[in-house]
Amino acid sequence: MPEADDALALLTQIFDETGLPGDCLPQYALIRQWLDEMPRESIEHKRREAELLFRRIGITFAVYTEGVSPERLIPFDIIPRVLAPAEWNVLQRGLTQRVKALNAFIYDVYHDREILLAGKIPSALVLQNDGFRPEMQGFEPAQNTYVHIAGIDMVRVGPKDFYVLEDNCRTPSGVSYMLENREAMMRLFPDLYSRHRIAPVSHYPEELRDTLRSVAPVNCEGEPAIVLLTPGANNSAYYEHSFLADEMGIELVEGVDLVVDDNIVYKRTTEGLRRVDVIYRRLDDDYVDPLTFLPDSMLGTPGLFNAYRAGNVTLANAIGAGIADDKAIYPFVPEMIRFYLGEEPILANVPTYRCSEKSDLTYVLEHLHELVVKETKGSGGYGMLVGPHATKAERELFAEKLKSRPHDYIAQPTLALSTCPTFVESGIAPRHVDLRPFVLAGKEIRIVAGGLTRVALRDGSLVVNSSQGGGTKDTWVLESLGHAQSHRG
Amino acid sequence: MRLTIRHQTSYKYSKPIIYATQTLRLAPRSYEGLHVMQWRVRGEGRHELPSFIDGYGNIVHCHTVNREHDSAVVTVEGEVETYPTDGIVRGAAETLPPLFYLRTTRLTTVDEAITDLALSRKGGPYERLRSLMEEVRERVDYVQGTTEATTTAVEALKLGTGVCQDHAHLFIAGARVMGIPARYVGGYLWAGGDGEHQASHAWAEAYVPEFGWIGFDPANRSQPGEAYVRASIGLDYWSAAPVRGIRRGEGEESLAVRVRVKDSAQQQQ
Amino acid sequence: MLSRTADSLYWLARYVERAENVARIVLVGHRMASMARSLGSSGDEWLSTLIATGCEPGFFAKYSEPTPAAVIDYLVRDPDNHSSVFTSLETARRNAREVRTALTADMWDALNETWLKARDFSSQPMTLDTAPSFLEWVRERSQLFNGAYDSTMLRNDAFYFTRLGTFLERADNTARILDVKYYVLLPQDEGVGGALDYYQWQSILRSVSALRAYHWVYHDRLQPWLIAELLMLRREMPRSLISCYDQITRYLDLIAEAYGGERGECHRLAGEAHARLRYGKIQKIFQSGLHEFLTDFVDRSISLGSEITKLYLT
Strand pairing partners for B73? Predict the structure, then answer.
């Protein structure tokens, strides 16, 4: 159980990534200067330009709230978030380590379950978890990899204090924003951009394609045929699906476009059936194959899982990878790193109380006003309680839920997420941010520098989810702290 | 005992359909209580179907007809030698630990009635399971046509009638409430003579530390013996289903199932 | 390419073309109706407008009388009508959205912006006064879209299927316009029709933007059989049946060649329909019945559509 003092410390001190109110950190020096020099009207003008740009390219994100247009735009903040080379270096090593351990863990739980036998994780937590898919037991995925694309949500509370908030091992989205945000910044502020040396992100689709190619089934001969499987145009991330397929030069397919015959997967084309080897699927496990999973799902392809299990096609991410990003499993990730890699975790977990443990539950109930309580099955910021922002009545209601179903909840201290300068109604003000880097795992691990920075646009809000009024920023990882060469003459 | 099995399913469609695919769990694997001498699962066109081993250790065959057709036939034929084990299942492919089989599913969710029924059993684990088996059969009459594949344990108990699948679900649900791992078993049963009735059957297995996995057939108030051919296991009917299928096309399906289980030794005499 | 993608492109093009065609028919109907009123004719212009768009059955399921206001709203805006201008645009955009990756940015922009604005327009009922400017705008937007795909799409199968959609829909439309007015084209006892007939002939030509073209081709006053000839058998007229079939057979051939030369029933049907137009004589067609020829042509086009679907789009 984490120390109460730690929790309190995390709660109270807000770290601004520019280093303010002290000295401005070197990575933000030029941006600060640029903001100071730029007339307010000009910023306002650029912001509108950015909005037009995004609307034109049609970035939309369905929001599951009634009364809101399903094609609402995610706000883009024009002030970039900057990470210094040394900061990124640590993150990169930590992310690589973490994703390796997550993959090793999934392989283990679907084979001999040594980590359970060793008593490092309570067996019931895995075996009775809905995220554990018995259908996957004993299956050998190519390269022993289950999580090919991971989105690891990170927050920062101090100069060196990054925490992993959660791992997304199923179908993490948002990478298209990372790419489009960069594109927008380069178009809107070419001068500011050229004054920095920024690690590129635009090669992400190629890295992704190479990763997918590296996990083709063993029996695949020649160049593997890769497709991206989407639930369809009504899915909230459809734009991203079509964008990525386009950027990778692969076909965007829906369940009806695929057909399985004798455990081989084909796509229906104008020239007849064509074999498929690798499927980057953005469809949840339950919907992939009505013959094995939800029988009334119309989104998947009957027989697809059989073909997978027979070793004739690769699904990325693998079925059953969700066991690794379950919120009840999350507290054990540092233990996994030690167990499988024999290393100390480079990135820390947020201290987490498991309400299924009696002593933790007691603590949580007593400290609801300073904790964030999350449903282990929830996602997207739904079904959670932010203690400090909740009313007494809301907290009491939640306490009842906790008592009746303690297994369904974990709690964490309310982190004082770091802030970045953000353009808001009243001008430029600090707003809380998080970071979702995307980690690719196949034959090797690849990470494109940076990730998606999400920003809570409401003053004081800690919820960055786009479904709850969050925005995004371009994320710059500097390759060196000096100014770009041209300025040195 | 030597048993021969012939299980033929004929599908007919009122209008031609363009695609049909099925997942079949109809092939036993050898363990101490059973030795598979030969076994074949063939589809339309009499070709042997491709197969794989699923997460539970079952042999799964896949049958696909990817062209316009208005009928199809699936034929399962095999011969096994069975031995008496008092229901104890030893030497089977165990892929998942007993603890896993404490998981509830939609079909085996419990309510107060099932909880009461289960928790009022007395004695050690084995005695309680025997008693549970009797009580399940007592409370649910064997009546065909009153329940469906989607009927839950709760519904079957309320209804008071059902078939072997419902008995198995209710037994499994009850065992799990007691904290005893339990699972669903699908297979064939030789009912004496060479009759064609009830040859496809379902029962349950529970895990008792002193014996390991042990079978219970609530429908027949007995523990599986030589007359049983164990073909698939799972958390419930859904994951152990002998046949799951999907088709594309407008035609209505009608099917005729013929199952024969014979004591081949008798035949030879 | 994916069958579903080809299917969406094909229907996307068809629905954009349909939106334009319905817009054209309603514009001309509107003009004829005012003309007829001023000439004192009772006029059933709105009824024939409904028939020409193929929307007659749906309309009478909802309304009992073809009042101008009802017809206009039904044909232009009504979401219950699958072929209303607005629904066609919406269907086109839905198809486009499903195959975003197969579209060029210009195609998407043209269509998406059209839909966004049409949605604003259509939030209120269409009236006799507001409809014409909206319909003119739709015609422009459709042409913008056609231009966008013609000038930006790669010349591969995706383009060919899009083209097929455009020309099949256009052929169908021209045939329907002619068929609904065929009786005014039939020879009459007095040799020359009255003023109203003259306006009817004009309206047929106007609806396919061919009034000027007629004069350039024939240097003659409007003669019904020449109008029919222009819209059916003259290759230089881009919306004529034969022009459309020139394109249809061409793109079907290109598709077959791209896929290794194999041809199917759709190629035979297209070739047959094409030959009837190429070797057709307008006098002969009139003798054996204009209406019969056109009905047969529409039926053949429908069969062609389903054979294309069977071979490539499912």
Answer: B10
Same domain, B133 and B261: no
Is the distance from CB of C207 to CB of C28 less than 8 angstroms? yes
Q: What is the CATH number of the domain that holds B262?
A: 2.60.40.2250
Say how far apart CA A12 and CA A14 lie, in whole Å: 6
Separation between Cα atoms, residue A253 and residue C123, nearest integer Å:
34
Q: Kindly report the CATH number assigned to the domain that includes residue B182.
A: 3.10.620.30
Sort out which chain C residues have CB atoms less than 8 A from A269's CB and list them: 1-3
User: Domain containing B50: what range?
Assistant: 2-82+243-268
CB atoms within 10 A of CB A86: 12
B59 and B114 both lie in a single domain: no
A137, A291, A310 ranked by CB distance to B246: nearest: A291
Distance from the first to the final alpha carbon of chain C: 12
Q: Are residues B161 and B210 in the same domain?
A: yes
Any residues with CB less than 8 A from the CB of B42 and at least 6 apart, and which? Answer: B48, B49, B74, B75, B76, B77
The chain A residue lying nearest B97, using CA atoms, is: A127
Regarding whether B98 and B73 lie in a shared domain, the answer is: no
The contacts found for B71-74 with CB under 8 angstroms, 24 or more apart, are B71/B10, B71/B11, B71/B12, B71/B13, B72/B10, B72/B11, B72/B20, B72/B43, B72/B44, B73/B8, B73/B9, B73/B10, B73/B11, B73/B43, B73/B44, B74/B8, B74/B9, B74/B11, B74/B22, B74/B24, B74/B41, B74/B42, B74/B43, B74/B44
Do residues B177 and B227 both lie within one domain? yes
Residue A8: how many other CB atoms lie within 10 Å = 12
**Same domain for B65 and B148:** no
d(CA C174, CA C238): 11
Alpha-helix runs per DSSP H in A135-281: 175-188, 190-194, 204-213, 238-248
Chain A interface with C: residues with Cβ < 8 Å: 56-58, 232-233, 238-239, 242, 245-246, 251-254, 256-257, 267-271
CB contacts of A259 in chain B (<8 Å) are 19, 66
Q: Which helix (H) or strand (E) holds B265?
A: helix B264-268
Q: Which of C3, C98, C109 sits opposite A268 (nearest CB)?
A: C3
Nearest CB to B99; choose among A123, A260, A263: A123
CA distances from A5 to A351, A353, A387, B32, C292 (A): 11, 14, 17, 59, 91
Q: Does residue B150 sit in the same domain as residue B199?
A: yes
φ/ψ of residue C81, rounded to 5: -95, 115
Nearest CA in chain A to B48: A262
pTM, rounded to two decimals: 0.86
pLDDT in tens, chain C (314 residues): 999 999 999 999 999 999 999 999 898 888 888 777 777 665 678 888 898 888 989 999 999 988 888 999 999 999 899 999 999 999 999 999 888 778 888 898 899 899 988 988 888 778 888 889 999 999 999 999 999 999 999 999 999 999 999 999 999 999 988 887 777 777 664 444 567 778 888 888 988 889 999 999 999 888 888 999 999 999 999 999 999 999 999 999 999 999 999 999 999 999 999 999 999 999 999 888 899 999 999 999 999 999 999 999 98
Rounded Cα distance, A289 and A304, in Å: 6
Instruction: Compute CA distances C37 → A257, B125, C277, whole Å.
Output: 54, 95, 37
When divided into structural domains, chain B yields a total of 2
